From TrEMBL, chains A, B:
Compartmental location: Membrane
GO molecular function: sugar transmembrane transporter activity
Transmembrane segments: 34-53, 59-79
Gene Ontology cellular component terms for the protein in this record: membrane
InterPro entries, sorted: PQ-loop_rpt, SemiSWEET
Protein topology in the membrane: Multi-pass membrane protein
Keywords, in A-Z order: Membrane, Transmembrane, Transmembrane helix
Name by which UniProt lists this protein: SemiSWEET transporter
Major subcellular site: membrane
NCBIfam families referenced in this protein's UniProt entry, alphabetically: SemiSWEET_2 (NF037968)
UniProt-listed Pfam families: PQ-loop
Amino acid sequence: MLLTDLIGYCAATLTTASFVPQAWHTFHTRDVRGISLGMYSAFTVGVLCWTVYGLLMDAWPIVVANCITLVLALAILVMKLRYHQA
Amino acid sequence: MLLTDLIGYCAATLTTASFVPQAWHTFHTRDVRGISLGMYSAFTVGVLCWTVYGLLMDAWPIVVANCITLVLALAILVMKLRYHQA
């Protein structure tokens, strides 16, 4: 059981933290041509749904992980929309 | 309870399917400069951990959703490595 929990925490940390280097890369380079607007639109709404799901289930690990991911995905989406027009 | 399940299925579908437009965009444009290698490396390992977690928990919705995401994230990672050198 301990190993399963450990793998779960590793999974949550990696998939959440992975958006940090993307947000930094986009902020730093302002190169958004290779980033899909469709992906970040769908992904941001999806993560918002996960957050609501976590709240309804009273599952705080889901809420916390998805709140962090939501901020990062939203930041990338806003940069995509902003730098695309620049 | 039905609403909670519905929101959960919406969340899983959106976050999984969101990688389809990114994989297609990258395959079509071959523009990988704006994509973070750090993100897709960490994300792919994270999704692999989620798949193992789902198998250990005997939670097939987690396994199925993450297997699909794994294939898409791995395809984007391979394209990032391949087109970056081209």
